Amino acid sequence: MREQLQLDFDKIVKTSKFSNEEIQTKKNFLNNFIKKGFPNRKQEDWKFLDISQIIKKNISDLSYFVDYSKSNKIDPSTFVDGLEHNKIIFLNGRIEKIDFNHEDKSKIEISDETKKNILFDYDNSLIDLNSAFTDKVFKILVKKDYSLKKPLIIYHSTNDSIKSTNINLRLDFELGENSCLKLIDYFANNTSKNFINIFYNFNLKKDSILKNYKIDKFRNDNLTYSFNNVEQGNNSVSETFILSAGSDYLKNEINCNLNGEYSSAFINGVFSLNENQQHEIRTTVNHMVENTKSYQLIKSVLGKNSKSAYQGRIYVNSKAQKTDGYQLSKAILLDETSEFNAKPELEIYADDVKCSHGSASGSLDENSIFYLMSRGLNYQQSKQLLINGFLLDVVEKITDLEIKNLIKNIIGLKE
Amino acid sequence: MDTREKDIENLKDYKYGFTTDIENIKAPKGLNEDIIKFISNIKKEPKWMLDFRLKAYERLKLLKEPNWQKPKYPKIDYQDLYYYSAPKSMKNKPKSLDELDPKLLETYKKLGIPLQEQARLNGIAVDAVFDSVSVATTFKGELTKHGIIFCSMSEAIQKHPDLVKKYLGTVIPTTDHFFATLNSAVFTDGSFVYIPEGVKCPMELSTYFRINASETGQFERTLIVADKGSYVSYLEGCTAPMRDENQLHAANVELIALDDAEIKYSTVQNWYPGDENGKGGIYNFVTKRGLCKGKNSKISWTQVETGSAITWKYPSCILKGDNSIGEFYSIAITNNHQKADTGTKMIHLGKNTKSKIISKGISAGFSDMTYRGLVDINSKAKNSSNYTQCDSLLMGNKCGAHTVPYIKNKNFDSNIAHEATTSKISEEQLHYCQQRGLNPEEAVGLIVNGFCKEVLQQLPMEFAVEAQKLVGISLEGSVG
Fold first, then answer.
1. Pairing relation of β-strands B281-284 and B246-249?
2. Measured distance CA(A110)–CA(A68) in Å, rounded
3. B417, B387 in Cβ contact below 8 A?
4. Considering the entire predicted model, what is its pTM?
5. d(Cα B230, Cα B150) in Å, to the nearest integer?
6. Which of A263-272, B48-57, B73-82, B297-306 has the lowest mean pLDDT?
7. Using an 8 Å Cβ cutoff, are A149 and A102 in contact?
8. What ipTM does this complex have?
9. Are A184 and A152 contacting, i.e. CB atoms less than 8 angstroms apart?
């Protein structure tokens, strides 16, 4: 693996136009990654999804080379209909287009951050991998008092020109005071066996609002890892919704630092899995100061041979009195081969807090099915109705009406 | 002075902190094959027992001390410990209590555990373990009438080798984790209980552990076998003198319940917790595991953990038999600089198995408390269910309370429900109690006892009263 990494890295350096300084930063990250390697189940955070094994078994020869000098053809048919939006198109590992057509251009600033180091402590080799191999790192700054009129959709797509490749994306966002950004990650991959590694860094200033919706709906056999780091200032709000259904393997990780008073974080997720899929959501919410709030709701519906895992951690610093922390995970197991794992963790050092977590898993309630069937529905319909009701509960938490309807359409949930 | 105040006065400083000045036989310091042979020899053990120990020791050499736990502790030098210490007078085991060293009798009297049978009104049979050996077992005659075997482990190895051979190490094998394997290699004594088929044990059985000698580790091993259709309730209590150094206590407890049998195991752990600056105290690293081997069997753990500098244990149930039941009730209280990482494991293997976990954690002062638990429902464990509730109470903002449950559900017919909350005693509750004439400390005591009630109810009568007092006393000085 080591030689392959080094070889592909040199190839990228040759074909692209990085400055010397940038190459040096990237080299450091590469060396870090070579030292640490892919995470495996021996690491507590990767207990339920062993990336190292998955890559060995399913992708075997992973290539790290992406030709950043050639552009790809964009296929507009994959775009979302019926919702006006701004676009970032990330195709085959390369950002092809950044388009803020619906916005006041003077209020949004895009800058190149490639040579900047990562500013927070992390113990995650995939971030090193990402920083070593990603193309340009852009920082998108939404200026003070500006709310984007339309949501921003990031299209993550790959076409059949790549296979068994590792592609990386990193974006930094800064939301100025009293600004608002709605961000949708839309995964439309129709290739196979790629390892997609996404890393977002959000910095939320006072009174700003971030809404991030991650939609992975279409079946593909890629392995995807997505990491969000969110730093929140006073009175800021972050809302994250995750639909985890398409990829064969998917891990979403959210690290949220509530650094400002009265800031709050909401994380909601839905797993809808089938046929050998293995997904995980891992969240860490750090309450660092007084009067902060977090709320998490994760629901899973697990079909044949599928596995989902939820690792949620709430940390309350001794200074963070009057914290409200809430975590709930529920799972319905539909088949004898499905499996649900949970590790909801509380780590609390302050006494005036209200923190609780709950976790429940089981099969569909036979009595409810009987009730529906006695009213004329057949078995399949009753089952579907119950599952839809179960999942709708999470979708209803989405605060943006337009996007909520879009997501309902995508999932195929009707009221 | 009312009784509560008197209790507090008595216990303000750790009441059991005295040392008994007694002549000891000690094995030389250190851990090696010779020491193991020495222990085995002094106990006149048969060869198979020595082989068992040596096998464990071989395995131990390959193992590393685990370090994933929350409370970190300075490295223990295993070569700097005495692995065997016994009162000299025990060399030739006295045949009856009359021959027992009066100093020992005095010690147990001071601890509130009189060994003379006539002194006991409530009819609890006691096995008293002093450092490395069992010094006395009471009510033997009464128990023998029912065919119940209740004696020290050493005696069981001599007199009932078939039973010991059949069951020892079947729940905690010599190939287990570091501390369990260490115990398998060097265990000194402990209790052995066998309840024959269909017998309901007429009295509570109990072991009282006492660490006296300094620089010793206490490694006892308890084995309880409940044969088909039998029932036994077993109590365990522990104390140690006050010392500046940390002492290691690494016991193994194995429970085996056959068809329709029920074992109820209760612990009130009150080892010396160290002084208020966190100096000294016992490291309580115990492995407790129960196997519900037969159909319809039941194992229930109840623990009140108030002592020890560091408590690190997870009494577990392996629910192998169909329809078997596992229960875990726990109160853990940490104050000053105490640390606890405790919880349970429920492993569901058989059909229709049920488990219930109620855990209450209270932390005060500078202490740190972690509930860590595993519920694992195997794919073959059809129609199983688990209910877990763990609540923590925090007093002050210098302490910590953590909950780390692992939940694994591999069976779609089974249900798991888990709930956890963390909070403090509300001002309203305190105000209400104080308005009605209780002082703040009494008010806290009352509220805390209410918080713990679900668990205290599970304890046998005599223990419950003691535990209730202990709960109040452990929290002394943490209010205000």
1. parallel
2. 19
3. yes
4. 0.85
5. 14
6. B73-82
7. yes
8. 0.82
9. yes
Of A331, A348, A361, the CB nearest to B401: A348
A113-154 per-position pLDDT tens digit: 777 777 777 788 888 888 888 888 889 999 999 999 999 999
Confidence of residue B118 (pLDDT cuts 50, 70, 90): very low
For residue A356, list its beta bridge partners.
Answer: A326, B421
Q: What is the pLDDT of residue B87?
A: 73
The answer to whether the CB atoms of A344 and B420 lie below 8 A apart is: yes
Chain B residues lying within 8 Å of A359, measured CB to CB: 405, 407, 416-418
Contact A81, A148 (CB under 8 A): no
Amino acid residing at A23: I
Q: Is A338 on the interface with B (CB under 8 A)?
A: yes
Closest-CA residue of chain A to B380: A336
The CA-atom distances, in angstroms, between B8 and each of A110, B1, B3, B223, B332 are 68, 11, 9, 35, 19
- Separation CA A309–CA A344 (nearest Å): 10
Helix then strand then coil, % of chain B, to nearest 5: 25, 35, 40
**pLDDT of A239:** 94
Q: Is the pLDDT of residue B460 over 60?
A: yes
Sequence-distant (≥ 6) Cβ neighbours of residue A7 within 8 angstroms: none
Cβ contacts (< 8 Å) between A360 and chain B: which residues? 415-418
Considering only the beta carbons, identify the residue of A44, A342, A353 that sits closest to B407.
Answer: A342
Residue in B with minimal Cα distance to A332: B412
Instruction: Provide φ and ψ at B146, rounded to 5°.
Output: -90, 0
Structure-block tokens of residue A321? 């009195």
Q: Please compute, for residue A76, the number of CA atoms within 13 A of its CA located in the half-sphere on the CB side.
A: 1
Q: Does A312 touch chain B (CB under 8 A)?
A: no
How many angstroms away from the CA of B121 is the closest CA of chain A? Answer: 44
Which residue, among B41, B40, B66, B207, has the nearest Cα to B137 in the 3D structure?
B207
pLDDT tens readout for residues B410-438: 888 888 999 888 888 888 888 999 999 98
Phi-psi region of B229 (alpha: psi -120 to 50; beta: other; left: phi over 0): left
| In contact, B143 and B234? CB cutoff 8 Å | no
Reading the block at residue B58, the tokens are 């071989």
Give per-residue pLDDT as tens, A36-48: 888 888 888 888 8
Facing residues of B368 across strands? B339, B400
How far apart CA A166 and CA A275 sit, in angstroms, is 24
Residues of A in contact with B345 (CB under 8 A): none
Query: How far apart (Å, rounded) are the C-alpha atoms in residues A312 and A326?
Result: 10
Sign of CA dihedral B264, B456, B105, B188: positive
How many CA atoms are closer than 13 Å to the CA of A375, on its beta-carbon side?
A: 8
B430 touches chain A (CB under 8 A): no
Q: Which residue of A has its CA nearest to B409?
A: A340
